[in-house]
Write a structure and sequence with these properties.
The chain contains three helices and no strands. With 88 residues, the chain is mainly alpha-helical. Helix 1 runs antiparallel to helix 2.
């Protein structure tokens, strides 16, 4: 991935050189959009590199959190339905 980041950095530098040399506003705009896209790709690769090798959260703990959250939401949903039925 580091090679890809370096390659993208080189491409960005080339497009910036082309922007400086260009006189056409349309061409400059196209190059700027291309540079923005390459910078986004570079950020994505940097994030993937940063997360590489990190441990994923424990499956059981994640499942327990999700189920607990859904139970809490269901509980409050039932209470809301009771309150609205008492109003009628």
């Amino acid at each position: 991935m580091n090679l890809q980041v370096a390659s993208i950095g080189t491409k960005i530098a080339q497009f910036l050189d082309r922007i400086v040399e260009s006189d056409s506003s349309r061409v400059i705009g196209a190059y700027e959009r291309k540079v923005e896209g390459l910078e986004c790709q570079k950020l994505v690769l940097a994030e993937k590199t940063a997360r590489c090798g990190t441990a994923l959260p424990d499956y059981d703990e994640t499942l327990r959190t999700a189920l607990t959250s859904s139970q809490i939401l269901a509980f409050f949903g039932k209470q809301d339905r009771l309150k609205t039925s008492e109003l009628c």
